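1st attempt posting a full record on here, be nice pls
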Amino acid sequence: MSGIWDRFRLDGRKALVTGGSRGIGKAVARGLAEAGADILLAARHEESLKQSAEEIASGLDVSVDYAVVDMADREAVDRLAADALERWGHVDILFNNAGTNEPQTLLETDDATWDRILEVNFTSCMRLARALAPAMIRRKWGRIIHTSSVMAFASNPGRGLYSATKSALVAMSRAHALELGPHGVTVNCLAPGPVLTDLPLSLLDDEQQEVFARRTALLRWGTVEEMVGPVLLLASEAGAFITGSVIHADGGMLCRTFD
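the predicted structure (as tokens):
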């Protein structure tokens, strides 16, 4: 019988990571690669993708490639899935991590912003899962992991659209877990709290960042490296009995009932 650490190994597995050029996506891709998986990164900017792919592959005996994709473009998302299937024949692990946010109140919300955030944060996740699940079903093994957020469970003014998309991922995951579970495919969500990435730091000033830190039980922001462990659990045999679930990697933010 293999040891417990062997159950976290991903040798020979194929992983598609969206939003993989930086932040959580890049850190998780490196973690999956260190566990033995071959990686296909997807994001919008080729220069940062190329650099990230080289950094992730450094010192590892795995393949790390990339595809330039705008996740708001449905045809491009479909091409990404087709490319992955043509490249490998199947994808074992889908980490839907691409996301965007543009704070707007209900009365400010315009259709263009609504459509883009919905496409990137939610619709692209469904389309990739829909395209890649058949091969997972045939192989009786697969891991679909969506990046949700604590904002799916507690929100702030101006975050209605973002929260709606992240909450929708949780609901969709539970339904898909029931559909795919009999075929050996698990579907779960990672729900980060305040994590030091470019997106929240671009939206929050120093005072607002301090407010978010004080809301956590640990009184600090998380790091992208601290998101790797939860995803590796969900992506490996170690998490084989976890499906339809959400891992709240939020530093205890949702423990609080008041500011």
